[in-house]
């Protein structure tokens, strides 16, 4: 979908509500909150910031429990989401909060910064919340960026030893990172065990995006007395997202679209179905894997081609005993979009079929 320009030269996004469109033109919202790239088309709904597509991949790898990412062009916004996003105040207000105590000698990433630099900064800023000022009783672990010295700056990934020592000197109860982690109720040992894995997740280069529309389930397994309350989890590499829960239904219709970033080394898309329980652990209702490599390959081939037909078959994922397909997953070009419809037979469960639609979105979107 192409952007349009108004009379003032601002980029407009077709289909956006007028209130949100006007919000995008405010000072500070015309560049990515994390790296400064112009004309950001993604947002973190959790933190109220507009971000570029490269930074959105890192945000998405944090998990939706930390940063819920939406597209201005590809997602349909609810009134509640618009209200929540606008209420925070945009990039300037959010950065006042999340960069209040940023070290004077630390540079933010730039539009051409590496994924490693983006990942380290974004995790420190949002996940660990190292740069926040939590109140007068808590001193900033670093010298704030607005109190700059003449000693110059260093980029992310080359922080001085003095910075780290100063942060480590803070008493545990005053340490911003610990304050955040403890709010999640994690033990230190649990955090240490996951820190390395989550750090590596953000450093993965992304080659595109995949929009997954979870359409419906058919004849799903019973996990309550006579029915189930199913929901679906999608996992791609270190990322995971989930659908809403549908109560008392063995043939649920979600028709819910979820977005994931595609790593350079394309892993299978894992699909898991669970029954929501209020007072006990959610019950397993089946799983499946989708090989998205044929879809990615077809999308890359289309980008380099001169095909201009409105609908054309580009390839397929063939059903066999080695996969969970009910039938061949045909890859189509439909109005310039590379899509695939898939019916999955759920595994390690007595019954159930899941219907899913995939669309491969290039990083230029």
From TrEMBL:
Q: Which PROSITE patterns match?
A: ARFGAP, C2
Composition bias type Basic and acidic residues, residue spans:
162-171
Q: Where is this region: Disordered?
A: 144-173
What Pfam family is a match, any one?
C2
Q: Which UniProt keywords apply?
A: Metal-binding, Zinc, Zinc-finger
Q: Which GO terms describe its molecular function?
A: GTPase activator activity; phospholipid binding; zinc ion binding
Domain C2 positions? 191-306
Entry keyword annotation includes Zinc:
yes
Q: Which CDD domains match?
A: ArfGap (cd08204), C2_ArfGAP (cd04038)
Q: Which SMART domains match?
A: ArfGap, C2
Residue stretches of biased makeup (Low complexity)? 149-161
- Arf-GAP domain location: 17-132
What name has this protein been given in UniProt?
Probable ADP-ribosylation factor GTPase-activating protein AGD11 isoform X2
What is the organism of origin for this protein? Ziziphus jujuba
Per the UniProt record, the lineage of the source organism begins with: Eukaryota, Viridiplantae, Streptophyta, Embryophyta, Tracheophyta
């Amino acid at each position: 979908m192409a952007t349009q320009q108004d009379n003032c030269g601002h980029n407009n996004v077709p289909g956006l509500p007028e209130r949100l469109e006007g919000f995008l033109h405010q000072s500070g919202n015309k560049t990515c909150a994390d790296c400064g790239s112009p004309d950001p088309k993604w947002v973190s709904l959790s933190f109220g910031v507009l971000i570029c597509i490269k930074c959105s991949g890192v945000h998405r790898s944090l998990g939706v429990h930390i940063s819920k990412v939406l597209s201005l062009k590809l997602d349909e916004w609810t009134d509640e989401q618009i209200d929540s996003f606008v209420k925070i105040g945009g990039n300037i207000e959010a950065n006042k909060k999340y960069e209040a105590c940023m070290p004077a000698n630390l540079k933010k990433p730039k539009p051409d910064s590496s994924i490693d630099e983006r990942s380290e900064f974004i995790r420190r800023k949002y996940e660990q919340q190292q740069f926040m000022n939590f109140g007068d009783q808590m001193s900033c672990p670093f010298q704030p960026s607005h109190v700059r010295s003449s000693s110059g700056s260093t980029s992310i990934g080359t922080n001085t030893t003095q910075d780290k020592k100063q942060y480590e000197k803070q008493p545990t109860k005053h340490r911003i990172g610990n304050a955040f982690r403890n709010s999640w109720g994690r033990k230190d040992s649990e955090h240490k065990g996951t820190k390395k894995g989550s750090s590596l997740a953000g450093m993965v280069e992304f080659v595109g995006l995949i929009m997954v529309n979870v359409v419906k389930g058919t004849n799903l397994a019973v996990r309550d007395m006579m029915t189930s309350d199913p929901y679906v989890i999608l996992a791609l590499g270190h990322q995971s997202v989930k659908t809403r829960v549908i109560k008392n239904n063995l043939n649920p219709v979600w028709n819910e679209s979820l977005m994931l970033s595609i790593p350079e080394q394309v892993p299978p898309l894992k699909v898991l179905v669970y029954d929501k329980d209020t007072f006990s652990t959610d019950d397993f209702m089946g799983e499946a894997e989708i090989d998205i490599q044929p879809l990615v390959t077809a999308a890359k081939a289309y980008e380099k081609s001169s095909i201009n037909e409105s609908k054309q078959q580009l390839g397929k994922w063939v059903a066999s005993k080695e996969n969970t397909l009910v039938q061949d997953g045909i890859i189509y070009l439909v109005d310039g979009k590379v899509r695939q419809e898939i019916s999955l037979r759920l595994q390690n469960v007595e019954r159930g079929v899941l219907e899913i639609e995939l669309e491969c979105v290039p990083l230029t979107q």
